[in-house]
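Dear H.,

Thanks for agreeing to be a second pair of eyes. The structure we're designing against is below in token form, covering all 202 positions.
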């Protein structure tokens, strides 16, 4: 049985194993015999190929197979071994190699392949999909109002940091002095209150 794996020809295969399955969600239903099953697609197909490289170019063929493994890129699979032939691309997931004593021109191998499926294309979406233009404009205006309110609050905070803004008693001594002048020399009540405000009691 011959298989073409990318640029590597696997001419001497002895065993081929294909593992295919489906995903099923199982639900327990009271008073029902068995389970309720829901198909959820299928996982990738796994293939295991065992064979040998013979002859003077056996080492070169093995090196090419290792190159495909280490590259990690999907490669074409041409074979009837993959079930109904619906596996078109695979990724080499593993490689085991052994050599018999005294046989320098033969390498036995076991290669593990996993079906590769192209990922779906990302949908092309606009900046604001499904949002009415007037609604988007209203949202922009709301953000502008919020920014203006934040700026006004920041100005109020700056104002409260001015010297004496938060203490209304800082100007009281001068007001009491004006009161004394207007009272025609009646200074005792005003002087006592001024001393209290300035931190000293006579």
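And this is the sequence the design step returned. I haven't edited it by hand at all.
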């Amino acid at each position: 049985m011959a298989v073409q794996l990318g640029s590597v020809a696997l001419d001497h295969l002895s065993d081929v194993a294909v593992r295919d399955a489906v995903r099923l969600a199982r639900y327990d239903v009271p008073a029902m015999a068995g389970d309720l099953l829901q198909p959820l697609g299928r996982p990738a197909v796994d293939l295991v190929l065992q064979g040998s490289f013979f002859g003077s170019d056996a080492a070169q063929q093995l090196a090419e197979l290792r190159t495909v493994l280490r590259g990690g890129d999907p490669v074409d699979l041409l074979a009837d071994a993959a079930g109904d032939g619906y596996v078109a691309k695979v990724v080499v997931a593993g490689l085991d190699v052994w050599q018999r004593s005294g046989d320098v021109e033969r390498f036995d191998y076991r290669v593990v392949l996993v079906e590769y499926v192209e990922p779906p294309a990302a949908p092309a979406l606009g900046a604001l999909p499904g949002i009415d233009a007037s609604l988007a404009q209203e949202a922009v205006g709301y953000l502008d109002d919020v920014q203006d309110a934040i700026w006004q609050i920041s100005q109020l905070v700056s104002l409260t940091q001015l010297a004496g803004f938060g203490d209304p008693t800082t100007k009281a001594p001068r007001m009491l002095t004006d009161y004394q002048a207007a009272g025609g020399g009646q200074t005792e009540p005003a002087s006592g209150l001024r001393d209290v405000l300035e931190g000293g009691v006579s």
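Two observations from my side: The mean pLDDT is 77. The chain has four helices and nine strands.

Warmly,
E.
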